[in-house]
Design goal:
Length: 358
């Protein structure tokens, strides 16, 4: 009963705060007309917010391709919208996770956020202007499809030993997390999300952190870094278009419920079900991009090369993780090693229970 009440409070409390301000503003200024021609974004973010809470992919992984490929909205507007809306939905989900006392990898949160701060600023101020709209669209879908491959690599091993925190934490691992944050911040500055999948991939493939830890960690990371990106884009650069704020306005009441709800729903699904959802969405986005965006033969080759590089990179990362795992286990005591594999057996039991409830 106490767990149920904690879940209800964790879902309702952040949503209530956002809804009080949203309803007050919309009633005072009579903003309901925005739904007449922007309702499609409200519908889109029903799915986007749920996926954001359930998986390691942010809501921008749905919003950005739908806006740029399906509705022909400029990538800059789609990126700014993704930053703004996730700064609401993902922070609401982050509060839910905190309230539910879900375990996080705090070293990753701290050091990836540190790197992400610099990555987002560099990306917004320098790199974003160097890319054309088509390059932004295609880079997004190629990177996300590569991430789907990383998730596939992860799910090949059903009975692997995992950790709840980074083992034998050192300065080298601090450096890896900061670099991961910088790269993730740059990706986020282009498409509105990216630091979440970068962190998730490194935590699970290299450091062998359990997905049950890595996924909520990526949600919290995304919440923090989208707030940073929104602040820099809106306040320091003063470059967010009015239409972006309007798209955000029609989605706030949805994502502030959907993202926390997704974070709770995700705990009741088998990880392979969530992985299948990621495989499907990323594949559809990739195929749609190659169909919709007009590319010459050379650019098709370039983007296929990006996908191939992503496959190779994540494969190497997985192999390095295997070596790290063997080294950690060899240095552990017999009691620690037995505990690790006992956790694997418990995990298998829990996942078979999830399957029976889906």
């Amino acid at each position: 009963m106490l767990v149920y009440q904690r879940r209800v409070i964790g879902l309702v409390l952040p949503a209530m705060v956002f809804h009080i301000f949203w309803w007050s503003y919309f009633i005072k200024h009579n903003m309901w007309y925005l739904f007449e021609d922007k309702y499609f974004m409200s519908i889109t973010m029903i799915f986007g917010s749920l996926i954001a809470g359930m998986t390691s992919e942010g809501g921008g992984s749905v919003a950005f391709p739908v806006m740029t490929l399906a509705f022909k909205i400029p990538p800059t507007v789609a990126r700014d919208f993704s930053l703004l809306i996730q700064s609401c939905g993902m922070t609401a989900a982050a509060f839910t996770l905190y309230w539910m006392k879900v375990n996080l990898e705090w070293n990753a949160v701290i050091f990836c956020t540190t790197g992400g701060l610099f990555g987002i600023i560099i990306g917004l101020e320098v790199i974003d202007d160097l890319l054309t709209p088509s390059q932004k669209k295609m880079s997004f879908v190629c990177i996300w499809f590569s991430f789907a491959f990383a998730l596939f690599l992860l799910n090949r091993y059903h009975k692997r030993c995992t950790f709840t925190s980074i083992p034998n934490f050192s300065l080298m691992k601090v450096f890896i997390l900061v670099v991961t944050g910088v790269l993730g911040g740059i990706f986020t500055s282009i498409s509105g999300s990216g630091i979440d999948i970068c962190c998730f991939s490194v935590l699970t493939l290299l450091f062998r952190i359990s997905e049950k830890i890595a996924t909520p960690t990526s949600v919290v990371l995304m919440g923090i870094n989208t707030v940073i990106g929104s602040f820099w884009r809106g306040v320091m650069m003063n470059a967010i278009d009015d239409i972006t704020w309007q798209y955000m306005a029609v989605c706030i009441p949805i994502v502030t419920i959907g993202a926390p709800l997704g974070s709770i729903i995700g705990t009741h699904f088998h990880r392979l079900v969530l992985a299948a959802l990621v495989y499907t969405s990323d594949t559809v986005a990739l195929v749609s991009a190659f169909v919709i965006v007009k590319l010459n033969a050379m650019m098709v080759g370039v983007y296929m090369g990006i996908i191939a590089f992503g496959f190779i990179f994540f494969f190497v990362l997985s192999k390095l993780g295997e070596r790290l795992m063997k080294r950690v286990i060899s240095n552990n005591t017999l009691e620690e090693t037995e505990k690790c594999f006992a956790d694997v057996a418990k995990k298998d039991f829990d996942e078979s229970h999830y399957i029976s409830t889906v």
